[in-house]
Amino acid sequence: MSTIYGINRSHSENTGVSGKQQNTALNIKLRDEQWEKLEPMLRGKEGDAGARGRDNRLFIDAVLWISSNRRLWRDLPLRFGKWNTTYMRFMRWNQSNLWRRLAENISDDPKLHAAFENIVSYGDEWSMRIKLRASRRTSREAYDAAIKHAAEQAPLPAEDDSTLHWLRLVVKSESQQ
Fold first, then answer.
1. Alpha helices in 70-109 (DSSP H)
2. Is the pLDDT of residue 108 over 60?
3. H/E segment holding residue 65
4. What is the pTM of this model?
5. Any residues with CB less than 8 A from the CB of 34 and at least 6 apart, and which?
6. Span between the terminal Cα atoms of the chain, in Å
7. What angle do helix axes 110-153 and 56-69 make, rounded to 10 degrees?
8. Burial annotation 14-31 (CB, 10 A radius, 16+ → b, else e)
9. Judging by DSSP bridges, how do beta strands 7-9 and 21-22 pair with one another?
10. Distance (Å, rounded) from C-alpha 2 to C-alpha 68?
11. Who's near 90: CB < 8 A, 6+ residues apart?
12. Which residue has the higher pLDDT, 43 or 85?
């Protein structure tokens, strides 16, 4: 066992998905004094309006595990709860910049600050990934619409042996799908 960010870590973790030991996984947990600094700043605690987080500490530990290991959300060990619930909560906090605000507010503990800067970085990576996926989807839809429009507007004659023969084949195969 070694320490990262002043947080306990071991190099073996059961992912709960495959049941196999993953030697690259880090088991990261907040120390009690770090949790005491962090707890009053979190959403979903007793007395807050709206929905209450079931276990903020477990959620923070899960996000630390994911961000430190740079693993897929579905690889989250079962002891942290359902990966999709944790992911959705992580993304809500990320979209509202809560991770960034937490990192700024805990600058008095350099190790905890570094852990939260890592979470901020991980959140930025996931946000960029989502934007790129949406962009690719939009581009693909625009391409498909252009091909369909071209096929409807100017179908090529069946007897044409010009250099545009390949276009007729492409339009034909696209319209069949």
1. 83-95, 98-105
2. yes
3. helix 56-69
4. 0.63
5. 6, 7, 109, 111, 112
6. 55
7. 70
8. ebeeeeeebeebbbbbbb
9. unpaired
10. 14
11. 63, 66, 123
12. 85
Whole-angstrom distance, CA of residue 60 vs CA of residue 126: 17
**What is the total residue count of the chain?**
177
- In degrees rounded to 5, what are phi and psi of residue 121? -60, -45
* 37 CB neighbour count, 10 Å cutoff: 15
- For the chain, give percent helix, strand, coil, nearest 5: 60, 5, 35
- Beta carbons of 38 and 60 less than 8 angstroms apart: yes
In angstroms, the CA 173 to CA 177 distance is: 7
| DSSP letters for 129-170 | HHHHHHHHHHHHHHHHHHHHHHHHH-PPPTT--STTHHHHHH
C-alpha 59/C-alpha 76 separation (Å) is 11
Q: Residue 92 is encoded by which pair of tokens? A: 């809500």
Confidence of residue 8 (pLDDT cuts 50, 70, 90): very low
Does position 117 have pLDDT exceeding 80, yes or no? yes
What type of residue is 46?
E
CB 28 within 8 A of CB 114: no
CA–CA distance, 154 with 144 (Å, rounded to integer): 16
Lowest mean pLDDT segment, chosen from 24-28, 46-50, 62-66, 129-133: 46-50
